[in-house]
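Field reference: sequence -> structure
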Amino acid sequence: MSHIAVERNRRKQMNEHLKVLRSLTPSFYIKRGDQASIIGGVIEFIKELHQVLQALESQKRRKSLSPSPGPSPKALQPAFQQNDSPTGMGGGSFKELGASCNSSVADVEVKISGSNVILRVISHRIPGQVAKIIAVLEALSFEVLHLNISSMEDTVLYHFVVKIGLECELSLEELAMEVQQSFCTEAIITAL
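Structure field:
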């Protein structure tokens, strides 16, 4: 008899927690009222919040790098950072190959993920910029498999998954620089 009461109490707690999760999550993330849909919607919402947090942190970093209101040619000089660090995953570790190219205009991060490349770009919102990035990628023999765009106020995060073309001979650093250049030319024109 006590086992039935314990199970009933557990289900009651679970339903209360699901109600709280549902109330904290915008309704368009939750398609149906079943438990799996609620949990799936909450997961998507949390992922979105993480992206917004990263965009805000990057915006804060860019503002601290560039105290002047407009970009200067010196501020447009990208800073490279090569990521070749062991990362703990499960029980073992693996090498994560990547590169980043940051400036006061945009932060560009490139990582290898299997046979694809993950490209993350955080910048101020610039009309037509995503089309410029896609044009750069296609010109360099990359195929865009997936694109996710998140924005908050004037900051935008582009998250690309791209397939490496057979003709592509670029390093990760060169790819990051090419994407960064699509922003730099826009920023120089805007500054003039």
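Note: The two ends are 79 Å apart (CA to CA).
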